[in-house]
Write a structure and sequence with these properties.
single chain, eight-stranded mixed β-sheet, six-stranded mixed β-sheet, 30% helix, 20% strand
């Protein structure tokens, strides 16, 4: 082996690797035998040393296995993780790779959803892949994989690389990690390791640099709730283009020589004029290991990130060079001197964030030589719950299927894994088919392509792309349709593992590919032991709901996809809630062969139309096919076909999935689009052929194209000596990108820790007759069950009013309410035991919506407040020119923080308890535990290090999870932990409140508002929680940014049988503003003017008075408005949009400009207080603890900057400790966007005290290091610890004339493009200006603006909660939440954000109300409502579509503006057979 290896080294050195074409060899820092060897100076010597070490190590492993197992050693299941060899544990066939990795202590791989929909669990799996075609060679494949779905035994013989395996804070960051940290691409950090591994896997999987579009596609399977994605995409664009010289031997050698210089520079403080580049003053040390695998990611990438000219921002606002001074008014270079604004752009991220060289060159694990030599063997790994089989031949597989007919065949586990986790499906036999050669081959014949049933979709996709590039276009119409359909099929992680056969055989009625197979004449090859192999046409394979033409002993072996002929056209169709990574609402596959008849006319000869999502299985449309056969495809044929389609696609009103009118309309839209497309294709292929459709139909055939996203950011620069105001990156960014940041579920636990699983109610409203836990208590590992009778203190709990029970007692009032908890030794045992608990109910009538509550008069009496201003009745009766009335329904929103609620409760001596909780309000957790245990608060300590997102959802609801764990901890005196699954968290922790509003508004003929009569209702749920305060803020913000005249605004809190709804970013304010903008639009349509004209006519000015009596001082809404109006070139673009809409019947654009005004303070007065504790140590370093919680918003970073500034020390000398109730007591929740103000004020107060004590020493030791001054003070017995306190001055709370300390203002202009036929849309451009005073950290603030905008856009345009209510009777069980995970609930993805995203911070606008926070303003919640500009831009596009269809005037559009609502609102001849033009789609409200 040594001689062979030496030859390999020479071959590598001289040939492939230096050209970046080999990704099989790489040095690693995980082998201590070589990592510190001083003699290994050359890359070849180090490689040789590593190889010898690895060979000897592998030989030792083999000898040990032979000694232990004799001749059966080859059967030992082995996998490598980050270069380390692991023998996989026995009896764990049902366990996922994620579970195993976390058991190993690799906590960087996160559990975000458990269904492969969020990407937080992404790892890279490398394996040797058998040749796909006869005569081929094995290839090494690197692929991103969802560890939460991947079976543990599926990685046998593979190398798994996690985020810990590519870099760390001590050993050095990998370039991917380094770039993401520097580019501010991590906020809460929970999703960050997944993004890192998706990008890393992409780079390892490609021999050449990816395109920007490929990068965005690779990240489509990863979700982020914080950043708005723009900084993540910017960070990774450096890898999109590589200089030609990057892989020369000289460049590799130079990288070593330059590493020391890079280390010295990488951590230096960066001038504020360079960019938002993560300025930092932390140092770094060197690591002399060289990585040489594939594209050398450690090298500078020159002009990386610069795409095609067509994708750059418009020429009138060119990209800004790094460091260039920019005029925010014009976007052009200027020379204004010190304090000039800084401009940064996506095109310049390479220069701004430095080269791809990390501070310390890192090393990556190679593919282990042992695995190269290890032949694939059959495996049978038995276990108590399941046996894992891995056959290596079709014969063996057929024998297994004959012996175990119910066995599940697994490749990616993307279907079976979800069934096992969420449906508690038990499968005793799991069969991995990845090593069956016959099922993994791709064969090209003259007639077509044969694809093995186990071929992953990515592999099939790549082969099809190759054929498309090499075969004549006339032969590849089907392949192009499949490729385009797969472009939107799930995320890359799913496509990398999911196989073709699994996608077919699940028989899903919404499969994206099955309609295409049916239409294109594909055939399925089927085999079974003892029966004759047979071939079944795809059109006859699907028999019913998830029922296919397979006998129990049979399996699908391959799929044959025929090539096409000339004038044969195949087209794919799909519409989903979200464009990227989403399951279909409806889809289709269509094929036609066009021929000339005897008259020379082109007619349809073979017509195949298949639809998914419109029946219990994928169906054909025979009547429609017949109508289109033998006729010219013109308008007459279309009309006849559409009439027949109504018979072919007929969905019952209560069909599962709902949206009946929309789905039937989509089928019609698909058919129309197909006919237009075929006409256009014939026109391109046949000389002198002219499309039978008019010119205005051309836009029906426009393909979806989206360029790579771009961004521009403008902010005020500060001097080089300033700490405050600089764009420092998040203080935990480096830990987050390496997976080293610790969240609650990552905390190492004592050995005797138990896991608690909630026993939930399955009824929305019922008497609780009995709870039988006898069978559950007999289950393996179970310790006990605890319910209401076991609560030693008070079982009544609540955020404000104690009106709910910790554990249900005799009555359940919502689905998901806790009846009790099962405590067991493992999570799996606890969850299995929960399913054994038998609960008897007596159902009672549920109230699920605001409409139900209004009808039943079900309210929280006394908690709905009101605001009265002026004589509304007299104004509406005669004091205005016109009065309009109407209503609007606004859906809720799931928080979808990536880290679900988690907690640990540890009992200690003398009834002391310590809790680690994922909460925004540690004090609330302490208070609730005190109540349910009857233990005084001074014995309870709650700690929070960081959150993986919160957004208000962890303000109150997390406290009750703490309390539930406290009960078993109290009785058993053992630590108890839990982490809710995604579906549990969504069902049982509340959402943003749905709202319903009725209004009357009076105004003049000029559009001036004179009076408003408003009744506004929120769906509070089954308990009060914070609903009253949320309604208060809605009432206070119902003016948005406008003078309203006389106002009567009354709030009603609807008591329903949903889980209690709770705080969410904006806290009711956005709902109040949404109502206002709705009737603003109605006024504009009534007067025949633009909504912007009405907004300007009523917009607040300085010293105006709000409807609740607060005088507006420092009102910046008009400056923000006019800034955006000018810099977005609003008026001229409106004209361009009008011209575009006139030319395009089926694609419409819209643009709108929206302001916002958000009040800063808790409206409950006593909450506006804060504390901070600061210690100075004798080495000159500072420890600060405050009552605020870091949840990604950068609070700790900002407080550290304030402390560093006030004490005059470097930022690196300040450390912010965890938030704990024994350090800062009685802290208010981290909410209301006020934390930087309050805790910054408290920290400033503490620094003031310390500075007063240190003043004599500063004078005496002027010019000396801070540490020397501190030591001198210490020796003089000066107290170097101070507690600071701050309370917001001059505020009154709700009901007074100054409920807010100040207002944060902003404005946004958004342009969209709408696909009229489907309701699909994209955001072409957004311009935002935010008034944030003198920003504490512009990089963090811009991140909050972008993230808030995208989250607000999601609320108003994408995210829809569907409950089992009267509008959705198909949801079972009744009263439950249907949208309980990323598969059914869609937050924005990378593809959802504006293509052109521009953010400016208003210049020269310091906030005189926050001197303690350096004149800054709060940022968390204020930008959220600007996302609604997308909603109203889409409404403008729909107005244009309705005008083309002959509909004029105002129309109702409830929120969110989903594709369903948008499409049906367009109201044309295609929707007319299924719905009236003013249809209001069903909504859970």
């Amino acid at each position: 082996p040594v001689e062979v290896f030496i030859q390999l080294v020479h071959a590598w050195k001289n040939l492939a690797c230096l050209e970046g074409k080999c990704s099989n060899l790489l040095l690693t820092g995980y082998y201590p035998a070589i990592s510190g060897t001083k003699s290994c100076h050359s890359s070849a010597a180090r490689l040789l040393a590593f190889g010898l070490h690895h060979i000897r190590q592998s030989q030792r492993h083999s000898q040990q296995e032979r000694h232990v197992m004799g001749d059966d050693a080859a059967l030992v299941p082995v996998a490598y993780v980050n270069g380390k060899r692991h023998v996989l544990p026995p009896g764990r066939a049902e366990v996922t790779l994620l579970t195993y990795l976390r058991e190993l202590g690799l906590k960087g791989t996160k559990l975000g959803c458990g269904e492969g929909g969020c990407g937080a669990c992404t790892v890279m799996v490398s394996s040797l892949e058998a040749p796909a075609e006869a005569g081929g060679e094995q290839t090494l494949v690197h692929r991103a994989v969802n560890a939460c779905l991947c079976p543990l035994y599926a990685v046998e013989g593979c190398h798994v690389v996690t985020v810990e395996g590519i870099g760390s804070g001590r050993a050095g960051l990998h370039p991917v990690q380094e770039r993401l940290a520097r580019a501010h691409g991590s906020q809460c950090g929970f999703c960050t390791p997944g993004f890192v591994m998706s990008m890393y896997s992409l780079l390892r999987s490609k021999p050449e640099a990816p395109t920007e579009e490929e990068i965005e596609e690779a990240l489509a399977g990863n979700l982020c709730r914080c950043t708005g994605y723009r900084p993540i995409l910017d960070a990774f664009k450096v890898f999109a283009k590589v200089e030609e010289g990057a892989y020369t031997e000289e460049a590799i050698a130079a990288s070593l020589a330059l590493s020391e210089d890079a280390n010295n520079a990488a951590g230096d403080s960066v001038s504020s004029r360079s960019s938002t580049d993560g300025a930092d003053d932390r140092g770094a040390t060197s690591n002399d290991l060289l990585k040489v695998d594939g594209p050398d990611l450690s090298l500078a990438h020159g002009d990386a990130g610069r795409g095609k000219e067509g994708n750059r921002p418009p020429k009138e606002n060119p990209p800004i060079k790094p460091g260039q001074k920019v005029c925010p008014s014009t976007g052009q270079p200027c020379d204004c001197g010190a304090g000039a604004p800084v401009g940064t752009s996506s095109d310049d991220k390479d220069a701004m964030y430095g080269s791809g060289m990390p501070a310390r060159p890192t090393a990556e694990p190679i593919f282990p030589p042992e695995l190269r030599r290890r032949p694939p063997t059959e495996l049978t790994l038995p276990g108590p719950l399941a046996t894992w089989h891995r056959p290596t031949s079709l014969e063996s597989l057929l024998a297994l299927k004959a012996k175990h007919p119910a066995a599940k065949l697994v490749v990616g586990n993307t279907e079976v894994g979800i069934e096992m986790k969420f449906k508690a499906a038990g499968y005793p036999h799991l069969v991995g088919t990845t090593h069956v050669p016959e099922l993994n081959q791709l064969e090209v014949t003259e007639e077509g392509l044969r694809v093995g049933a186990a071929v992953p979709l990515t592999k099939m996709l790549h082969r099809m792309k190759e054929l498309i590039a090499t075969e004549p276009r006339t032969r590849t119409s089907t392949l192009r349709a499949v490729v385009e359909q797969l472009r939107w099929f799930a995320g890359v992680q799913i496509r990398n593992t999911a196989c073709l056969g699994g996608n077919i055989c699940t028989g899903s009625p919404i499969s994206d590919l099955n309609p295409i197979w049916m239409a294109c004449r594909a055939t399925f090859d089927i085999a079974g032991q003892g029966t004759k192999a047979r071939t079944v046409p795809a059109r006859g394979f699907f028999l019913g709901y998830r029922k296919v033409d397979l006998e129990p002993h049979e399996l699908l072996t391959s799929v044959f996809i025929p090539f096409n002929f000339q004038y044969e056209y195949v087209k794919e169709f799909k519409q989903a809630h979200r464009k990227d990574d989403d399951i279909a609402i409806a889809n289709g596959g269509m094929r036609v062969k066009m021929v000339q008849d005897s008259t020379g006319a082109w007619v349809g000869e073979e017509v195949e139309l298949a639809f998914g999502g419109v029946a219990a299985k994928t169906i054909k449309a025979p009547l429609t096919e017949q109508a289109l056969t033998g006729v010219t495809w013109d308008q007459k044929a279309l009309s006849a076909a559409l009439e027949k389609l109504q018979q072919d696609v007929n969905i019952t009103a209560d069909a599962p999935g709902g949206m009946v009118e929309f789905r039937r309309s989509l089928a019609a839209s698909f058919l129309f689009r197909f006919l237009v497309s075929v006409n256009n294709s014939l026109a391109a292929d046949v000389p002198d052929f002219t499309s039978a459709f008019p010119d205005d139909a051309e836009s029906a055939d426009v393909l979806y194209e989206r360029p790579a996203a771009r961004g521009l950011q403008y902010f005020d620069g500060v001097g080089d000596s300033d700490v405050v105001g600089k764009p420092y990156r998040h203080v935990a960014a480096d830990m987050q990108v390496t997976g080293e940041a610790t969240y609650v579920d990552d905390i190492p636990l004592p050995a005797n820790t138990l896991y608690a699983a909630v026993v939930p109610s399955a009824r929305p409203h019922a008497k609780l007759l009995s709870v039988d836990t006898s069978e559950a208590l007999k289950a393996e590992g179970v310790e006990a069950f605890f319910g209401a009778k076991d609560v030693p203190g008070d079982n009544r709990v609540g955020a404000v009013e104690h009106d709910e029970h910790l554990f249900a007692d005799g009555l359940v009032t919502c689905v998901g309410q806790a009846i009790g908890v099962i405590v067991a030794d493992t999570e799996a045992h606890a969850r299995a035991a929960v399913r054994l608990v038998k609960v008897e109910y007596e159902d009672l009538p549920p109230i699920m919506s605001c409409a139900d509550a209004i009808q039943a008069n079900s309210y929280f009496e006394g908690w709905g407040h009101r605001i009265d201003c002026g004589d509304v009745d007299s104004v509406l009766e005669g004091g205005c020119d016109q009065v309009l009335q109407g209503d609007i329904r606004i859906g809720g929103q799931e928080h979808f923080y990536l880290e679900t609620n988690a907690a640990i409760v540890i009992p200690k001596e003398h009834d002391e308890f310590e809790s680690f909780s994922s909460t925004q309000a540690p004090t609330k957790g302490q208070v609730v535990m005190h109540g349910v245990l009857g233990v005084p608060m001074h014995k309870i300590v709650t700690r929070t290090k960081r959150l993986g997102g919160g957004f208000g959802g962890k303000e109150t609801r997390s406290a009750f999870i703490n309390a539930m764990l406290a009960i078993p901890a109290y009785h058993l005196r053992r630590p108890i932990r839990t982490m809710l699954d995604r579906d549990e968290d969504m069902q049982s922790t509340g959402t943003r409140h749905p709202f319903y509003a009725e209004y009357k508004v009076g105004f003049t003929k000029e559009g001036v508002i004179k009076g408003l009569d408003l009744n506004i209702y929120n769906n509070a749920g089954h308990s009060l929680d914070l609903s009253s305060s949320i309604m208060d803020r809605a009432l206070l913000h119902t003016d948005n940014s406008y003078r309203l005249g006389a106002v009567r605004a009354v709030g009603h809190l609807c008591k329903t049988n949903q889980f209690s709804n709770t705080a969410f970013r904006g806290f009711g304010g956005p709902q109040g503003m949404m109502v206002t903008e709705h009737w603003i639009d109605q006024i504009a349509r009534t007067l025949g003017v633009t909504p912007e004209a009405v907004r300007e006519a009523n917009m607040y000015d300085e010293n105006d008075v709000t409807h609740y009596g607060q005088v507006l001082d420092g009102c910046q809404v008009r400056p923000c408005w006019y800034y955006v109006k000018k810099n977005a070139d609003f008026e001229s673009r409106q004209k361009e949009i009008a011209a575009f809409n006139a030319k395009n019947r089926w694609r419409k654009r819209g643009m709108t400009l929206i302001p916002t005004k958000f009040g800063i303070s808790f409206t409950t007065k006593f909450l506006n207080q804060a504390g901070a504790l600061i210690h100075i140590y004798t080495d000159g370093t500072v420890l600060c603890t405050h009552g605020g919680v870091e949840m990604g918003q950068g609070l700790h970073t900002k407080i550290a900057q304030i402390v560093a500034h006030d004490l005059g020390i470097p930022l690196s000398s300040v450390y912010i400790a965890e938030t704990a109730t024994d350090k800062v007591p009685n802290a208010s929740p981290t909410a209301a966007s006020a934390s930087s103000d309050m805790y910054g004020g408290a920290a400033t107060d503490a620094c003031r005290q310390l500075n007063e004590r240190l003043k004599p020493y500063r004078e005496k030791l002027a010019g000396k290091p801070f540490a020397e001054m501190v030591m001198a003070a210490h020796l003089d017995r000066v107290d170097l610890s101070a507690h600071g306190f701050y309370s917001t001055p001059d505020i009154t709370g709700f009901g007074g004339d100054r409920p807010f300390n100040y207002f944060t203002h902003g404005a946004a202009a958004t342009e969209v493009e709408l696909d009229v036929l489907t309701g699909d849309f994209q955001i072409r451009r957004t311009d935002i200006c935010m008034d944030l005073g003198a920003s504490l950290n512009p990089a963090i603030d811009i991140g909050q603006v972008e993230g808030g905008f995208v989250q607000g856009m999601g609320w108003t345009c994408l995210e829809e909660l569907v409950w089992g209510d009267s509008d959705h009777k198909w949801v079972r069980p009744a009263g439950s939440l249907f949208t309980r995970g990323p598969g059914t609930y869609k937050i924005p993805a990378t593809n959802s954000i504006p293509v052109d995203f521009r953010v400016s911070l208003l210049r020269d606008a310091p906030n005189f109300r926050t001197p303690m926070a350096h004149s800054s303003k709060a940022v968390g919640e204020p930008p959220f409502f600007l996302g609604a500009s997308t909603f109203f831009a889409l409404k403008e596009a729909v107005y244009a579509a309705r005008a083309s269809a002959g509909h004029t005037g105002f129309f109702q559009l409830d929120s969110p503006a989903t594709p369903e609502r948008l499409r049906m609102a367009c109201a044309d001849h295609l929707t007319a057979p299924f719905a009236p033009p003013h249809l209001r789609c069903k909504i859970s409200c």
